[in-house]
Amino acid sequence: MKKMLIKNIGILATAEGRQARRGAEQGKIRLYKNAWILLEDDEIAEIGTGKYQYQNDFDGEVLDAEGRLVTPGLVDAHTHLVFGGWRQNELGLKMHGVSYLEILANGGGILSTVENTREASLEELMDKAEKALDEMLKFGTTTCEAKSGYGLNLEHELKQLKVVRELNRRHPIDLISTFLGAHAIPVDYKKEREEFIRQICEDMIPIIAEEKLAQFCDVFCETGVFTVEEARRILETGKKYGLIPKIHADEIEAIGGSQLAGNIGAISAEHLIVCPLEGIEQMAKGGTIACLLPATSFYLGANYAPAREMIQRGVPVAMATDFNPGSCPCLNLQLVINLGCLKYRMTPEEVLTAVTLNAAAAIGVADRIGTIEIGKKGDLIIWEAPDLDYICYRLGSDLVRNVVKAGKKIR
Ligand code: NIG
Ligand code: FE
User: Residue 398 CA to chain centroid, in angstroms?
Assistant: First the structure.
């Protein structure tokens, strides 16, 4: 058995449990001072304070935290990891006042990434996504969700999902896969949206479920994209095939996506920038996690989701990057941590829960990761920081000193 001892931890900060934390519970963090952690193979075996009693004749690898902060590895619960090309040309358009939905309506935006993704080979997509994952890992992400949605037909949606499956095998970051065939209406189906939705429900979902290429089904429910009724049909079909519903809701206009999420028991609703009170209430009732994406608000120059209202009303809040080539070309969760405090007015403790335990719960893996507790996976970070406040307070530096993934020191 491989062993690792992490000693001299100044502060070990972690949420606790195997389910999302809501309300006041979201801000309750366990703090161990002057702590150590023993990892056996890829698992957390023991946690203690003071000096580990067998430290002097320990026969495994020793990592000295030298008084620094240790937290669980970060979990990025919402990304569009696999895509061809970039969209730097849209920045100029935005500066001239063209909106995100206008760019999309004119065949740009998501639709231009669809062209680039269809043109790219599986190997090209894999190389590109792998580089993104390398960067994410350096910034402290140890588990990441990845959505399809730039193929928009069976062949190319499958290609994207196969890239995720292969990368999950070969990259240290664990990947969780979401089918987002309903990300936009392809240009050639603009007048035949019914037919496109039929293809999603009858041609894509059954095969993706059978080949176990995704665990979740997501829909971009938005004005000019998919209506609430269409989203409901697609997500209900996904459910029938064992795909758990997620939804891009209330990002730009509130058309009822968050209410739908609570209503059909979606595991998470994402974005929620303009989420109305009824949506928050429905989500609280349905046990839906709010997966908030503050770097996207920043990038779109939009408002920020009503996180405090959600916490107050008992909706668990998770946060993620939304890494994608359009609305958020950012894969650094450390920036999301800053924005969570500064823009959502969440406390450092609530923020930590949002990017670890609640994020893990939003992608169905909170029983295995997201906290530093005995029996969970040995995914953790030693920060170039003395305490939790510090990583929320400093801006623009990479504060990760070491990343331990599944019991192995990676950085
Ligand atoms: O989550 N809003 C929809 N989908 C992505 C953006 C995708 C893109 O612009 O390429 C998002 O922001
Ligand atoms: Fe997204």
Answer: 19
